[in-house]
Amino acid sequence: MEDLMNSSVIEIMKILVVHRHKVIVDQIKSVLTDNSPVVVHTDSGLDGLLTSRIESFDLIICGTDLPVITGFELVRSLRTNSINKNVPVIFIADNVDAKVEHLGNALGVAGMLAVRDMDHRLANMIQERVITDKEQGQRQRSGYSFN
């Protein structure tokens, strides 16, 4: 009976936001308030990379144009050598053009958003992709499947 009660505990999402503009970080936090996540913020690609090597996250949201190392370099390094190598990443860019899409797709990011589209699309993207994927993984680990 106790195991059944423990299995219904809702996990709080832990999100790493790597972006150099505090205004954008605040905007991301306001969009995510319905999910009540723990948000860890770094403002450079190097700090984001170092943080992601020592802490586990459920989602990483990062800018493409970061100081020290770019968002693309950060994700490339995450995918090859990190405890977060399978964590979904969402890129936030000033403009999502063909180059950003190509590099994002090559790195296997979960989504790419232009800053101007962030308010109305970020929460939906997290709900549809990230939370659904996480719930599916939990069902598979527990032996339940609702397909």
Plain-language structure description:
The protein has 6 helices and 5 strands, in the order αβαβαβαβαβα. It is of the alpha/beta class and 147 residues long. It has a single domain, classed as Rossmann fold, CATH 3.40.50.2300. Strands 2-1-3-4-5 form a 5-stranded parallel beta sheet, sandwiched between helices. The longest helix is centred in the last third of the chain and has 25 residues, at 118-142. The chain starts with a helix and ends in a 5-residue tail after the last helix. Mean pLDDT is 80; it is low at 1-9 and 139-147.
Corresponding CATH superfamily: Response regulator
CATH fold description = Rossmann fold
**What percentage of the residues does DSSP assign to strands (E)?**
15-25%
What pattern of helices and strands is seen along the backbone?
HEHEHEHEHEH
Number of helices: 6
> Rough shape?
globular
Oligomer: single chain
The CATH class assignment is Alpha Beta
CATH architectural group: 3-Layer(aba) Sandwich
Largest sheet: 5 strands, parallel
| Count of discrete domains | 1
Radius of gyration in whole Å, from Cα? 16 Å
Give the structure's gist in a few sentences.
The protein has six helices and five strands, in the order αβαβαβαβαβα. The chain is an alpha/beta fold.
Q: Which key phrases capture this entry?
A:
single chain; 147 residues; alpha/beta; Rossmann fold; five-stranded parallel sheet; 6 helices; 16% strand; disordered N terminus; disordered C terminus
